[in-house]
């Protein structure tokens, strides 16, 4: 019995690849199995190769591997694209009766099952259901009870009526029965089910859920791959909690709307990808200088310019750390797992309001479009705490009168011991004040006086120092704490690194791993780096942006493993590359 | 709020640094007067300003205010109003701010029809950068950056507003102070996006579109048989190149503001100490 199954469906965009994969993933989650999905898609609506991969196990799975056990190939190209991942005994399900698939050659080591997907789908009520027939066929190969598919089919097709759901159920059963009746195959792929019930979600959805839980009420955004799912998730949900989503005319508008809402007292956010961050950068300085709390999610994709919109990269770190003219205090938070996207989003809102600064929340395409199972209690909504920071006004900790100068003016930029001054929400009586992108005095009015300029710059930077003292901005650690090799990484690479550990161990290499969710202000890594013989920084970019800042921090050279093909690291590949690097150094 | 609000309540203690005689004095005073007459108070008024001479308005007025980046005042105002429907939101900008760098936002703000007022101080020149042509400058207008004229047709703000689906489109002249205040007040009271283009002469750099020019040429629609609810007639006036109309050119009394449909009933600033009630069902949705 296989503990770990790697399954994929591939075809042309528009073939329903995504929904088929999702149905299978949900059914596996219902059957108490862990799931980790990945998508391979092109930046077009129809045509072009697209695939949905599902890795599943009774144990937690957190990355993709370079192997496929079962492949549903709706097109010949699907086989070509995945040839390298087919192993001895892999099963390929295809429709040999289809004109375009009649001459298909199944690689020697694999088992080809020709299933008349279209015919069976038509028997069930329509050719469109050939994907679901294929799902049923695949279920038979891995001894997965098709009953588990039913709930997922209701979820997918329930709104289209009972007849459609019934037809799809029938389609799955026809596929299963065909395989059982026609083939006598003996594979190791029979999979186990458990009593557990998991939730299945992607990184963008986890950000959206975190935002609502954290009291976000206003979202303005402009659609961009791969951040759009955040906006789509919030649309239709945030309204139930007194909020709203505005699709703006461009990113400049989106961030300024979000800024306006935040200034009016709402917990507010926007999400975009690199090209959108470029456009929003103008307003980041305004957010910082008006001391307005705002959360800006950057779901990175491959750049520069329009780059590869549907491909993975972690290339925006420099932009987030340094983007904008002048000196801008900010936070940069980078969740390293899908579940952590939820936690860090909640934290981003609290930090934004506690320090009245822009907070970047960095995710990446691999995390955004990947779905993963978690025990539902991993998302503990009840434990969410909302900290609005220093607010003056009735019902808040500070009184307006205490922050009003002798002439009766509220002082939104009062210089304080920690750099943070109380803010007052518009509507608060006797606290009317202005804020501006111009340098200003404590009251918010323009100044060019040298002492006031220095006071305000110091005040804004002071907030970062205060955060360093008060917040737990540390790293996460796993592996062998005494290992000679230290691996440091950020973002979605964590899962692959975690899964590479057993392979590394089997090859005699122990590593200590730090993943860093706080990129600014960031933890001091000099202790672990000094303790290790070598440090390797793993990130999906060409130049090693995190490696650069770490070198600057610790004044020591670090080694780099980068990838900028547009594809995420797999656990197998990372293990190889870490071994290679360690061997190089030993040699 | 209080019906006893006086327009001086909206004045700050800062003295304007506009050039003596600048049209913006009259434009701003009319805005304050209009606000006071609607009964708004400084504590529930939010003024958003753009960049340029017009952008200084937040400094000279007393209310909640933000002075943002060039051309982006409208989105900020939309965000403020969407987050707190109880606030009276007024956005002020200039012709460069609104019709050049911010023209995209202008068009979409008109479409979106959020319940707020937008006042543009149109002096047909860039003043703060010392005299370059603006989007509303005449084709033959000679400036430092257009020594032989702009060779471009000027933007017609009211025509643009009409084409973009504006629901309240008016023009005003800063020097006609009482009339100007009336027009702005009507924009504030309009249920939707109230747009007022104000002829606000620049005495330092524009020697063509002067007080004398406007005084001689403006025609007040109140003195005509104009019916602002008649879109066809409004269009005729708007595209008439020979007349500088003031007054309400077009008004759609049936318009439904975007925020009335998509916005919340309550200000968004009041939050519980933990996740909002019912948030646990968000997790269950992922089963």
From TrEMBL, chain A:
Any one GO BP annotation for this protein: organic acid metabolic process
Domain Pyruvate/ketoisovalerate oxidoreductase catalytic residue range list: 13-176
Keyword set, alphabetical order: Oxidoreductase
Any Pfam family hit: POR_N
Domain Pyruvate flavodoxin/ferredoxin oxidoreductase pyrimidine binding: 210-456
Name of protein: 2-oxoglutarate synthase subunit KorA
Top EC group: oxidoreductase
Swiss-Prot/TrEMBL catalytic activity: 2 oxidized [2Fe-2S]-[ferredoxin] + 2-oxoglutarate + CoA = succinyl-CoA + 2 reduced [2Fe-2S]-[ferredoxin] + CO2 + H(+)
UniProt keyword annotation of Translocase present: no
PANTHER family xref list: 2-OXOGLUTARATE OXIDOREDUCTASE SUBUNIT KORA (PTHR32154:SF20), PYRUVATE-FLAVODOXIN OXIDOREDUCTASE-RELATED (PTHR32154)
UniProt xrefs under InterPro entries: 2-oxoacid/accept_OxRdtase_asu, Pyruvate:ferred/Flavod_OxRd, Pyrv/ketoisovalerate_OxRed_cat, Pyrv_Fd/Flavodoxin_OxRdtase_N, Pyrv_flavodox_OxRed_cen, THDP-binding, Transketo_C/PFOR_II
EC number, UniProt record: 1.2.7.3
Subunit structure: Heterotetramer of the KorA, KorB, KorC and KorD subunits.
Species of the source: Halococcoides cellulosivorans
A GO MF term: 2-oxoglutarate synthase activity
Automatic annotation (TrEMBL), chain B:
UniProt-recorded Gene Ontology molecular function terms: iron-sulfur cluster binding; metal ion binding; oxidoreductase activity, acting on the aldehyde or oxo group of donors, iron-sulfur protein as acceptor; thiamine pyrophosphate binding
Cofactor: Mg(2+); [4Fe-4S] cluster; thiamine diphosphate
The entry's keywords: Iron, Iron-sulfur, Magnesium, Metal-binding, Oxidoreductase, Thiamine pyrophosphate
Domain Thiamine pyrophosphate enzyme TPP-binding: 53-198
Domain of life (superkingdom): Archaea
GO BP annotations listed: cellular respiration; organic acid metabolic process; sulfur compound biosynthetic process
Gene3D superfamilies reported for this sequence: 3.40.50.970
Pfam families (UniProt xref): PFO_beta_C (PF12367), TPP_enzyme_C (PF02775)
Boundaries of every Pyruvate ferredoxin oxidoreductase beta subunit C-terminal domain copy: 202-259
Alphabetized NCBIfam families for the sequence: PorB_KorB (TIGR02177)
Protein name: 2-oxoacid ferredoxin oxidoreductase
């Amino acid at each position: 019995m296989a503990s770990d199954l790697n399954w994929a469906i591939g075809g042309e965009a528009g073939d329903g690849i995504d929904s088929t994969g999702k149905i299978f993933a949900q059914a596996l989650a219902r059957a108490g199995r862990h799931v980790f999905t990945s998508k391979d898609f092109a930046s077009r609506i129809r045509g072009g190769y697209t695939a949905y991969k599902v890795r599943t196990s009774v144990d937690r799975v957190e990355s993709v591997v370079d192997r496929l056990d079962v492949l549903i190939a709706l097109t010949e190209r699907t086989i070509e694209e995945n040839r390298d991942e087919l192993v001895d005994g892999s099963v390929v399900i295809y429709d040999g009766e289809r004109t375009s698939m009649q001459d298909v050659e199944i690689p020697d080591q694999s088992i080809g099952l020709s299933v008349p997907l279209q015919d069976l789908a038509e028997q069930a009520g329509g050719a469109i259901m050939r994907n679901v027939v294929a799902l049923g066929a695949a279920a038979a190969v891995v001894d997965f009870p098709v009953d588990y598919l039913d709930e997922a089919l209701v979820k997918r097709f329930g709104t289209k009526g009972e007849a459609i759901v019934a037809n799809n159920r029938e389609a799955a059963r026809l596929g299963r029965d065909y395989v059982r009746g026609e083939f006598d195959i003996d594979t190791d792929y029979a999979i186990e089910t458990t009593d557990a019930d998991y939730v299945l979600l992607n990184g963008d959805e986890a950000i959206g859920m975190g935002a609502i839980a954290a009291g976000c009420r206003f979202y303005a955004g402009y659609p961009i791959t791969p951040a759009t799912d955040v906006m789509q998730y919030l649309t239709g949900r945030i309204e139930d909690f007194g909020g709203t989503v505005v699709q703006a005319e461009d990113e400049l508008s989106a961030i300024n709307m979000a800024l306006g809402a935040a200034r009016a007292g709402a917990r507010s956010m926007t999400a975009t990808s690199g090209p959108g961050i470029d456009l929003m950068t103008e307003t980041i300085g305004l957010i910082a200088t008006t001391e307005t709390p705002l959360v800006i999610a950057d779901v990175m994709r491959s750049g520069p310019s329009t780059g590869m919109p549907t491909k993975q990269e972690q290339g925006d770190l420099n932009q987030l750390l340094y983007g904008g003219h002048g000196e801008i205090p900010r936070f940069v938070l980078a969740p390293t797992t899908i579940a952590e996207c939820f936690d860090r989003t909640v934290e981003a809102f609290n930090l934004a309001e506690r320090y009245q600064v822009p907070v970047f929340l960095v995710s990446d395409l691999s995390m955004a479009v990947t779905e993963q199972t978690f025990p539902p209690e991993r998302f503990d909504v009840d434990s969410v705490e909302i900290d609005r920071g220093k607010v003056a006004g009735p019902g808040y900790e500070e009184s307006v009168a205490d922050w009003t100068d002798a002439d009766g003016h509220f002082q939104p930029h009062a210089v304080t011991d920690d750099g943070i001054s109380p803010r007052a929400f518009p509507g608060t009586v006797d606290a009317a004040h202005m804020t501006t992108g111009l340098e200003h005095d404590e009251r918010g009015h323009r100044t060019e006086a040298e002492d006031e300029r220095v006071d305000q710059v110091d005040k804004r930077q002071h907030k970062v120092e205060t955060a360093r003292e008060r917040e737990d901005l540390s790293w996460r650690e796993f592996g062998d704490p005494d290992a000679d090799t230290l691996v440091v990484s950020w973002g979605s690479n964590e899962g692959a690194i975690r899964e590479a550990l057993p392979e590394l161990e089997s090859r005699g290499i122990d590593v200590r791993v730090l993943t860093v969710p706080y990129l600014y202000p960031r933890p001091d890594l000099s202790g672990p780096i000094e303790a290790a013989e070598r440090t390797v920084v793993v990130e999906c970019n060409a130049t090693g942006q995190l490696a650069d800042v770490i070198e600057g921090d610790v004044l020591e050279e670090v080694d780099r493993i980068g990838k900028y093909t547009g594809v995420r690291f797999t656990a197998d590949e990372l293990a190889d590359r870490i071994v290679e690097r360690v061997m190089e150094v030993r040699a | 709020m209080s019906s006893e609000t006086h327009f001086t309540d909206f004045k700050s203690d800062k003295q304007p640094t506009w050039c003596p005689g600048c049209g913006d004095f009259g434009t701003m005073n009319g805005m304050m007067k209009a606000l006071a007459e609607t009964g708004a108070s400084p504590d529930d008024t939010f003024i958003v300003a753009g960049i340029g001479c017009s952008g200084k308005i937040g400094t000279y007025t007393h209310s909640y205010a933000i002075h943002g980046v060039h051309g982006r005042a409208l989105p900020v105002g939309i965000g403020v109003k969407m987050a707190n429907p109880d606030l009276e939101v007024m956005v002020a900008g200039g012709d460069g701010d609104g019709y050049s760098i911010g023209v995209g936002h202008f068009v979409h703000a008109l479409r979106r029809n959020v319940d707020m007022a937008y006042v543009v101080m149109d002096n047909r020149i860039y003043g703060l950068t010392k005299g370059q042509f603006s989007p509303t400058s005449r084709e033959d207008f000679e400036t430092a950056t257009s020594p032989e004229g702009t060779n471009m047709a000027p933007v017609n703000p009211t025509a643009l507003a009409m084409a973009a689906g504006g629901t309240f489109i008016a023009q005003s002249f800063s020097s006609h102070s009482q009339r100007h205040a009336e027009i702005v007040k009507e924009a504030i009271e309009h249920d939707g996006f109230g747009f007022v283009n104000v002829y606000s002469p620049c005495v330092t750099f524009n020697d063509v579109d002067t007080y004398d020019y406007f005084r001689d040429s403006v025609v007040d629609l109140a003195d005509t048989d104009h019916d602002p609810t008649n879109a066809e007639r409004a269009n005729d006036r708007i595209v008439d190149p020979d007349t500088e109309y003031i007054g309400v050119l077009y008004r759609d009394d049936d318009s439904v503001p975007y925020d009335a449909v998509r916005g919340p009933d309550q200000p968004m600033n009041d939050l519980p100490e933990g996740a909002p009630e019912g948030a646990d069902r968000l997790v269950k949705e992922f089963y």
